[in-house]
Amino acid sequence: MHLSYSFIFLLLIIFMLEATITQAQGKSTLVSAIFAFGDSTADPGNNNYIKTPSRSNFSPYGRDFPNHVATGRFTNGMLIYDFIAKHVGVKESVPPYLDQSLSTEELKTGVSFASGGSGFDPLTPKISNVISISKQLENFEKYKEKMEAAIGKEQTQNLIKEALFIVSAGINDFVANYNTLPIRRINYTTSAYTDFLLQHVDRFLQELMDQGARKIAVANLLPMGCLPFVITLNSDIINAITKRDCIDSQSSIAQDYNFKLQNMLNDMQIRFAKLGSRIAYMDIYTPLVDMILGRKYDFEIVNRGCCGTGSVEFAFLCNPISFVCPNASKYVFWDSIHPTEKAYYLVSQALLPTIDSITKY
């Protein structure tokens, strides 16, 4: 009799543990899928399938990705949104939408529509012939049509409603467009151009919600003046070669954009709360500044990229014959524009409270 009671007690303990685990998993998997839009910070390889010089599907890119595969991500490994996808429990990494080999199950848990070199300004993607933000939205509409054919309209609507949408763009609008070409500078002051971009952000987010998106996180601009490429192009010879200090005037532009973006997103959250929408501001600026200024973390090289000289190389300029540092984890930047996998990982960890705030009820 004593043995029977012990056995029953053990079964009760096992049952309670299983119930606790199941409940915890339920709380942490309130996301059906993850969808990304934007530029190279969110592009896992869509540019592989279009005619553009803005590609990274070759060595040494992907050197630290699983199986050392150069997927088309503009870094040595994973992106921020790969780590977020794993955190919310939908997949290990986010594939590119344009990969025609993806199965229905792979599509069902989310894809990225982003394109390296793109931006909110319609002129920006034309510079390197990449996929515009508006075209990315069109591709999302095609995605929905595919899913409706595969799993039905109602299930697709529920999938979209419970999905996490990530939007990350804007840096190319300044670095590759406004600061490099004269076209926009003729008609816009820097502040006016920032407002011009944010009008496009607002319009895009409204269109995304019209398509059923309800959980949206929008990234701010990283510290633009600390990009190795920007330091090189905006410094005198001494700073460009030896000191390589951040260009404060350029980072100030990013700060102004970020301030206005945060206010705009707060206003949008109020405007669209009745739809059940949750719109979050993702601060990638602060953790990256902390890395660069040595406030946190343990990076040794913060003003040059790991690839080449690390001051001007990115995309095809960082290639199989380039010098590459032996240990990218010591660097904040992989090439002259894009952070390393380690930096992306640390940023992703800093973003988790924000992500949880819109994905957990």
What is the typical, i.e. mean, pLDDT?
A: 92
Name the CATH architecture of the domain at 32-223 and 248-285 and 340-359: 3-Layer(aba) Sandwich
**Spans where pLDDT lies below 50 across 5 or more residues:** 7-28
Which descriptor suits the 3D outline?
globular
What strand order characterises the main sheet?
Answer: 1-2-3-4
**By helix and strand content, what is the structural category?**
alpha/beta
Sequence of secondary-structure elements: HEHHHHHEHHHEHHHEHEEH
Structure summary, number of beta strands: 6
Beta-strand share of residues: 5-15%
Helical fraction equals 40-55%
Largest sheet, strands/sense/barrel: 4 strands, parallel
**CATH class descriptor name of the domain at 32-223 and 248-285 and 340-359:** Alpha Beta
Spatial gap, N to C terminus: 46 Å
User: What do we call the CATH topology of the domain at 32-223 and 248-285 and 340-359?
Assistant: Rossmann fold
Radius of gyration: 22 Å
Helical stretch tally = 14
